[in-house]
Design goal:
53% of the residues lie in helices and 12% in strands. By secondary structure, it is an alpha/beta fold. It starts with a strand and ends in a 7-residue tail after the last helix. Helix 14 runs antiparallel to helix 15, helix 15 crosses helix 18 and helix 16 crosses helix 18. The protein is built from 19 helices and 8 strands. The mean pLDDT is 91. It has an 8-stranded mixed beta sheet with strand order 3-2-8-7-6-1-4-5, with helices on both faces. The protein folds into 3 domains: 182 residues, Rossmann fold (3-Layer(aba) Sandwich), CATH 3.40.50; 99 residues; 132 residues, no CATH class. 34% of the residues are buried.
Amino acid sequence: MGRKVFISFLGGTNYKYCDYWKNGKSFGNVRFIQEATLNYLNVNQNWESDDMALILLTKGAESSNWVDNGQKDREGNIAIDERTQSTLEGLSTRLKEFKIKTETINNLPDGNDETEIWTIFERVFERIEANDELYFDITHGFRYLPMLVLVLCSYSKFLKNITVKSVTYGNFEVARDLGHGLIVDLLPLTQLQDWTYAAGQYLDSGNVERLVGLCSEEIRPILIETKGSDEAAKLLNGFVKKLSDVIEERQTCRGMNIIKSSSLKGLKEYSEKLKTSTFIKPFNPIFEKIKASLVSFDDNENIKNGFSAAVWCYDNGLFQQAATILQEFVVSFFCLRHDIGIDDEATREIVNKAFIIKFNNIPEDKWIIDSEKKGKLKEVFADDLFANATLVQSFNNLTEVRNDFNHSGMRSMRSPMSPQKIKENIKKCICAFGVILFNIKID
């Protein structure tokens, strides 16, 4: 487990006292927002000796607000504390009230151009360690600071596996109306960025691992804390769990699950409930895009879900799964058409034999099949659809693709297909079976 690290920029202004509140509670009438935020984070009770505050200083901020007596009045004299009528303590002195170590990054540039901004980025990043938990205060600093923090968070998550636990802003201006300032929680912005990236990863590649990871990191702790009573968190967790189940069924070629569609049915039920309740409101459009990726699937038991799953696998780069599911869809199609149990492995082999016999034009006296199954084979073989040469050729092509996959192209009797040829063959088969079979009604 990594350190807890509070990261805050210090400005150079002569800050006035403000009583900062959060969730109906005061966290200190202080000059420096850092004090109120550390109180809000309850560092004296919940943080350990290895945890720390990292204060970012320009030369001006260091001389004005980090050290004692840094502020000057208009005449150039040392400024006086408006409350105590004594000299002003700097933040370095005020932070001694907290039982964590304090470190600084000194001599930071002001960030007046791209080079200076990148310098700030690099110097902060190099102080972050693997697996740290980061708590950002972005109250003071230049206008680019929120964007810098968002990018730094994403960059550090990827390279150093950090977790962003808090992003806050001290709103001093509202004190004119409310009588006190507010500590504003900006963490949902970074959460939205994370969920947007994870959803995009799913939509681009069918990968749900990041969505599942976010549920583990952000949603399950809420469910534990609320004992499962947070409805928004519960729905989001259920939605992602069902989505993961659906994707895993395709990744692992679970044909019966795909056809019966119970996981998809549960997923769509969760998706309907998510319309009115989400963890963060801007999630709604994101999950609408995820739900749109499911429209080609029937949430009732339907053999044609096998075809849709094969198309989905192809579109998401799961080419071996696409070939496997597609061919088994065709076999299952003919099984249902001729009253053969789709989960009866021994009997469904009749359909495969029918395609082999038709493609190779094998005479009946050369058929190799048990006598009790020969009648059913003749029935399947006589199906009008077997007169379609494209259907038979496509099935044979798909068989070759599957064999090439299963043997990793290591077959002495045949030249291995190139990756491009494999993908082209699967695509052609999808098109052929879609045109010939998909619109045929199966009772």
